[in-house]
Amino acid sequence: MKVLGVDPGSRITGLGIVESDGDRLVMHYAASIRAGQGEIGGRLKIIFDAVGDAVERFRPDVVAVEQVFMARNPHSALILGHARGAAIAAAVCRDMPIAEYSAKQIKLAVVGQGGADKGQVQHMVRVLLSLSSNPTVDAADALACAICHINMREVKSRLALNGVVQ
Question: Would you say 144 and 107 are in contact if contact means Cβ atoms under 8 Å apart?
Answer without folding.
Answer: yes
